[in-house]
Amino acid sequence: MATAVVAAASGAQAAFPASAQAQTARAAQTASTIAGPRRAGPARAGTRKTAVGVLDGAAQPITLASTRHHTPRHIARRMLTRKGWSSDYQFPYLNKLWDRESGWNVYAMNPYSGAYGIPQAVPGSKMSSAGADWPDSARTQIRWGLRYIRGRYNSPRQAWLHEVADGWY
Hints:
The structure is a single chain. The longest helix has 15 residues, at about 20-35. The strands form 2 sheets. The protein has a two-stranded antiparallel sheet with strand order 1-2. A two-stranded antiparallel ribbon has the order 3-4. The chain has 2 domains: about 5-65, no CATH class; about 70-165, no CATH class. It has helices at about 20-35, 70-80, 85-100, 140-150, 155-165, and strands at about 5, 15, 50-55, 60-65. Helix 2 packs across helix 3. It is α+β, with helices and mostly antiparallel strands and about 170 residues long. It has 5 helices and 4 strands.
């Protein structure tokens, strides 16, 4: 049996029997309507949208995976706000700090000091206080790093000023 492949606006594809091409067109239109236009701003991680395509009179769910991705920088910006800092004011300092320290790489490791992760914790295992997934979770490492900054420097700006003056934070 021949099949037709339909692509929705989100980039998701679904295969349907060729005999149902008219229904396929309606399903694609439904999928793109549900997916909607792309909006600015991050979505929640793992967000999925579902459309319903009709094949030979039976409803078939089509899962459209969200194409939005949360980078460590996006996660940090949101966490700054949740911790009561102005992300517009504090994020540029945090960005400079962690760009210099680790390049925002979750797996960054300093072979001389043993510092690990985005905030370059020494030892890296200290970050386990923020979550068991600390070795490979940007969210957990950022959570720990922001707690460290608050406790030691009071703000990302003050941590950055210390980094510039002393070469470490």
